[in-house]
Design goal:
By secondary structure, the protein is of the alpha/beta class. The chain has eight helices and 16 strands. The strands form three sheets. Strands 8-5-4-3-2-1-16 form a seven-stranded mixed sheet. The chain has a seven-stranded mixed sheet with strand order 9-10-11-12-13-14-15. It binds adenosine-3',5'-cyclic-monophosphate.
């Protein structure tokens, strides 16, 4: 689709380098918490860029884990970051000469990782191991509005605003045939729609955690429930593919039914599934 809102106050985007392979996103986890067959958020862009690192990361083989060079984190909550320390431990002895895995996140998110995770108490400080000069992990700050260029395919990735209980972002993977957006965890968020104005939105992976009966929890924890998500989706053109992520275990049938009752005609949504591969534009 073409741009669907006015031009944004977008940052300068680095010139696109030739992209030799069509981008794919493999859904490793898209659940709002754990249970059998429910893995928390992790998406693999191509084979070397992880977007969030929830329990879905554990479905990658060791060889696949070894190919990961970048991790983009949406925020500091455990269900999105716990794969990072475990990934580091799994690959540390086999990555020598490859350089650190680069972890990209807001400064506030990185501060939480440094203080509460890689503190040699909850987990070893893998930003200094196996050698301080050649660690397995390095931490890199990003900012909303920035466009990164990451991975062997030099994918252009825009940092989007999210509105959650801790500082949070979403990400857009910019492609020549359309853009893929992952909102991260967010409640209603006018700034997101403002940021999407200049994008050529093709696929929207948007969160919804709770059914309508838990609306109060959704409000307190800054997540969507069907009524709030339906209001947000009213501004998304029908041709955009909308994929739901982060539904709490056991809630999907209710969420889908309640959402269907609130969406306008022509607005289809699909529940994202772990194991699914998305072809990006
Ligand atoms: N006020 C609350 N009442 C009940 N559960 C909450 C509350 N705040 C946060 N949570 C839960 O804690 C979880 C932390 O991760 P999430 O934000 O994915 O989802 C959150 C909710 O499931």
């Amino acid at each position: 689709m073409s741009n669907f809102l006015a031009q944004p106050a977008a940052p300068v985007v680095p010139a696109a380098l030739p992209e030799t392979r069509p981008a794919t996103v493999r859904v490793l986890g898209c659940s709002g918490s754990i249970a059998r067959d429910c893995r928390t958020t992790a998406f693999l862009l191509d084979d070397d860029v992880l977007i969030d690192a929830g329990t879905g990361v554990g479905d990658l083989s060791l060889d696949e884990l070894l190919r990961v060079d970048h991790v983009l984190l949406s925020h500091s909550h455990l269900d999105h970051v716990l794969g990072v320390p475990l990934l580091a431990d799994s690959v540390l002895r086999r990555r020598q000469g490859r350089g650190p895995i680069q972890v990209h996140a807001l400064p506030q998110t990185l501060a939480v990782l440094r203080q509460h995770l890689f503190n040699d108490l909850l987990w070893p400080d893998f930003t200094r191991l196996p050698q301080p000069a050649q660690p397995v992990l390095s931490l890199h700050e990003l900012a909303v509005g920035q466009t990164l260029e990451l991975g062997a395919q030099r994918r252009r990735i825009r940092v989007l605003p999210a509105r959650h209980t801790v500082p949070a972002v979403g990400y857009a993977v910019l492609g020549t045939g359309g853009d893929f957006v992952y909102t991260g965890d967010t409640g209603p968020n006018p700034a997101l729609w403002e940021a999407l104005r200049g994008l050529n939105l093709r696929q929207l992976v948007i969160e919804i955690a709770f059914s309508e009966g838990d609306r109060a929890i959704a409000t307190d924890s800054l997540h969507h429930c069907p009524s709030t998500l339906a209001a947000e989706l009213a501004q998304v053109p029908g041709e955009v593919e909308v994929l739901l992520t982060h539904v709490k275990p056991g809630e999907m049938p209710t969420v889908l039914a309640e959402l269907a009752a609130r969406l306008g005609p022509g607005r289809a949504v699909t529940a994202l599934r772990a194991g699914q591969r998305l072809n990006l534009g």
